[in-house]
Amino acid sequence: MTRTLLAVLLILTGIPTSPAAEAVLPPLRTDIEFAKVGEVSLALDAFVPDGAGPFPTCILVHGGGFVRGDKQNYIKPLFEPLGNAGFAWFTINYRLAPQHRWPACAEDVETAIRWVKSHAKEFKVDVTRIALIGESAGGHLVSWVGTRAKEDTHVAAVVPFYAPHDLELQVKHRNMLGDSMTALLGLTELNDDAWKRLREVSPSSYVHKGMPPFLLIHGDKDPTVPFEQSTRFQKQMKDLGNQCDLITIPEGVHGMGGWDKLGSDYRDKLIAWLDATMKPSDDMSISAKLIELGGQVTQSGGAITKVSFKDCSKLGDAEFRLIGQLKELKSLTLYGQCKGLTDETLPHLSGLTNLEELGTDGIQVSDPGLAKLTALTNLRSLSFFHPSFGRKGFDGSGFAALKALPKLERLTIAGTPFDDHGMAAVAVIKQLRDFRTWHTYQTPAGNESLAKLPELKSLWLG
Which of 92, 257, 277, 323 is most buried as measured by Cβ atoms within 10 A of its Cβ? Predict the structure, then answer.
């Protein structure tokens, strides 16, 4: 029986999944600096379960009205349940108002995500299964980051507890700005500019299709952040086709500290939701999805080793994330106008460290974006047909980054605005043994750059 199914069954039967008597947990690693902004040192505490990992991971963001609190306040009731359930977790500090006004606190949360991802190996983090969890002001921050995430700050799930997603609604509820908004935004009176500023800093203003799954947790008798904040945000999310679930705490007020007296099982439900939402996809289920999209899949020893598409028109962000989970993949062919492979989606493939062959057609990456391919450290053969065709400013100079691929021997570039700049870039990939290019724009002077390739054995110019 899977842990997710077991957790759900225990919840339904009323049996607690986080009993008081648990095995002794590994010690917490405390006060690790993850950033320094000017003279301010930002620290986090890290919990890493015993075992090989990588583990599903949570980044915890405390509340305190943006002006108080730290990594060991308010959010602490979640520490032990997450640890007992086998999650790695990090609880972070961020800069507080009024000494540090918006967007300092949000930037610090984003910095923490990048830090956790860059230290994934050291802390046994599964970078494909990171959840952001925040309460109160911290709930606003994780909601903000979740709605506006870029590739380096994207997470698999977001869990805001009793969060003020809509600051305009929050101020109207209180009929005053309050100390928090004055400290955070420097606002002193309610005028047109103030209302505009409140909307600008509200996560609800940026909800869009394609966001990660959200779980909202809120007491229906919260006098500080009205329950309506969560029901309205959930409707916004669902209206755009996003997953957004809501756990209501009957009679619950602001702060999870008092919920135990109500007999709430919110922690068990949270763990079950995280398990179900961030469940790793196995190769068999990924195979079925890729075949449904028109892909050809080859397996060996129960693992997918080769994937080939003749038509990539249906491949986008979600599909490249799936492909990126195929850790044993050795060959990937993406032909047929693979315009969905861009600077933003290419990093989804960064975990394919066993990949030896990659063929592409019609990808839309920038010259700097080509450097993202250097994560595929086992590549031996790369082919680009019509790369960045029609993309303004692309000249192939970014191919120079491929010199960092130690095993790359064969490179093909065809049908693209690749010119002498691109040829000079290829010339620094000293390990190349086979290079082919045609329907490009280099001149004889550019072709002469190839004389700098000491290992070149085969050349095709057309």
Answer: 92
Type of residue numbered 288: A
Domain boundaries, the chain: 3-277, 283-461
Q: What is the pLDDT of residue 16?
A: 44
Determine if residue 440 is left, alpha or beta; phi over 0 gives left, psi from -120 to 50 gives alpha, anything else beta: beta
Residue 263 falls in which region: left (phi positive, over 0), alpha (psi -120 to 50) or beta: left
End-to-end CA distance of the chain: 59
Could you tell me which of 110, 208, 106, 213 has the C-alpha nearest to residue 157?
213
Q: What is the pLDDT of residue 442?
A: 83
Neighbours of 234 (CB within 10 A): 18
CB 395 within 8 A of CB 366: no
Q: Which residues of the chain have pLDDT under 70?
A: 1-23
Nearest residue to 212 (alpha-carbon basis) of 132, 138, 271, 136 = 132
Q: Residue count of the chain, please give it.
A: 462
Show the CA angle centred on residue 448, arms to residues 446 and 451, nearest 5°. Answer: 130
Host H or E run for residue 88: strand 88-92
Q: How far apart are CA 67 and CA 254, in angstroms?
A: 17
* Whether domain 3-277 has CATH 3.90.870.10: no
Q: What is the pTM of this model?
A: 0.67
What are the CA-CA distances from residue 397 to residues 132, 314, 401, 405 (Å)? 37, 29, 9, 16
Q: Report the side by side order of strands in the sheet with 29-37.
A: 29-37, 40-47, 88-92, 55-61, 125-135, 157-161, 214-219, 244-249
Cis geometry, peptide bond prior to residue 56 (ω within 30 degrees of 0): no
Helix axes 3-13, 266-277, angle to 10 degrees: 150
Query: Rounded to an integer, what distance in angstroms lies between the CA atom of residue 404 and that of residue 430?
Result: 10
pLDDT of residue 329: 95
Nearest to 338 by CA among 363, 306, 308: 363
Q: How far apart are CA 324 and CA 129, in angstroms?
A: 13
Report the pLDDT value the prediction gives residue 99, as an integer from 0 to 100: 97
Domain 283-461 belongs in CATH node 3.30.70.20: no
Helices (H), 186-314: 192-200, 228-239, 266-277, 283-292
pLDDT at 21: 43
